[in-house]
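Homework-ish question, so no full write-ups if that breaks the rules, but can someone show me the predicted structure for this set?
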Amino acid sequence: MSSRLLNQIGLFFAALVIVSPAILFFLWMISLSLKFEIDNGAYPPILIPERFAWSNYVKVFEENNFLLYLWNSVLVTGTATVLALLIGVPAGYGIARLKAEKSAVVIMIARMTPGLSYLIPLFLLFQWIGILGTLWPQIIIHLVVTVPIVVWVMIGYFETTPMELEEAANIDGASSWQVFRLVALPIARPGIVVAFILSVIFSWNNFVFGVVLASRETRTLPVAVYNMLSYEQVSWGPLAAAALVVTLPVLVLTMFAQKQIVAGLTAGAVKGG
Amino acid sequence: MASVTINNVQKAFGDTRIIHDVSVDIADGEFVILVGPSGCGKSTLLRMIAGLETISGGKITIGERMVNNLRARDRNIAMVFQNYALYPHMTVADNMGFALKIKKADPADTAGRVRNAANILGLEKLLERYPRQLSGGQRQRVAMGRAIVRDPQVFLFDEPLSNLDAKLRVQMRGEIKALHQRLGTTTIYVTHDQIEAMTMADKIVVLHDGLVEQIGAPLDLYDKPANLFVAGFIGSPAMNFIAGRIEEGVFRSAGGLILPLPEGARPTDAAGRELVYGIRPEHIRATAQGMPGTVTLLEATGSEIFAKVDCAGEEIACLFRERLPLKQGAQIRIEPDRACAHLFDAKTGRRM
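A: Not a homework solution, just the prediction itself:
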């Protein structure tokens, strides 16, 4: 009995040590966002201030056209994700069924190529077509992030759906398109949810593309937060508040869907899972 | 309903030939079972009939139509898979009506046909359930229902009972046979289980290494196996094989065991040639004047006694219907029933 209790305490501490960097990081961010500038620079550091500086959050929304940037982010991430699903789900299905691993690798290579190597040429290209002032350059370039994720998650998913189901549908008179739409797609719905969530997270957090391609009007949230850093001196309070606001949607989404994300990432590892 | 003709059909995956040259005629309404050990090509042959595998050579005809280049969905056949292959996101009713929905049939008509099939299979109360909420036997029935609803020309079954437990298997065996008698649809059924083949088929096709070993009615295969493979495959427990030759009007094994010649066999037929003597365990009797042997293994199930008897170095399996007072290690005299004994050529494996 006591050894079991000891075990549990040990496990608890081990877990605490492992997650503490992530947790402390968040706690410190929350603390920063709620302190006045004077407390933020104090030594020894203060975790819980005597007076909370809610004004930091108000400032985020008042000063920086934050709602516009939020809307930009929603548009860029939303469109890039929807387009990625439209392209990536059928692509994943095709690659899984035709066992076209090489094309999957090509997509992966596109993802692994450092963004900066193609950002400048693309910048010139977008300028030449004349869409630089709009959100389209960012949407298009976010596809480099979102499409590979969707394709790879979906390959894993479609590979686990048994072939017999599609053969049965074939014999039942379904065309290839009907097999995909009526059998393969509904079965892969959990996979599509995972692909959607992961795609949103990666696109939402993307910073490099926005920094290069966004103008004052077309900034997304991560870029907006970065700009707070450079314009005023370094006001940690509003910065942390803004960062938290940016992180919140993704954080909520992740917590809400973490079970499905784990299931989706491990699909294929265990048959019939 | 339709007849099916398989004419010199071959199948190769790259350089590997799975099916060498198979020809089978299946009459309209016949229940034909393709049986053989795993890897013999029986499932591949069925999938070729279904249109799930291409045909490398030869011709398959369903009814009047040559189907070699016809897509699976145009062949008007229905198939029951080993793992049932029910659509997990559809209810039982939707599963059964899927083919008709694809055909854009009248929904009222579809519902009627689904209900009808459900009645036949006892699925009325399960129509709104999902496959995951069903037991193995129920899933099996739904898969059959899906086939029935379509009213196809041919039913194809690919080892449909191998995922069920023994008791359910026996029950479903009876149900599939009853269903065939009721509907009369041409049925091609693949199994590796010779008991399933014996109990259900009108005609059995024994396949081995991509070749047809024998085609015939179940009892013909049992009574007159064409070769050593069929003789060993059909029947359980398996037939005893004893190598030897005919000498002086009797069969003599290498170890000196002497056996009476099968009825109708003339001593001059194959005198001096290498032969194999075949006798089924159930065709051996314990008698006072038979060949002496020692019991090396004894298994009594109540209805019968299975024993292995060592006669002059040959281990002979015996199945006795009567309750003999046997003990392991005891001496016993046994005698083969000459009317049921077989002789095979040792080289070619053919029946003499």
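Now go work out the reasoning yourself. Hint: The two ends of chain B are 39 Å apart (CA to CA).
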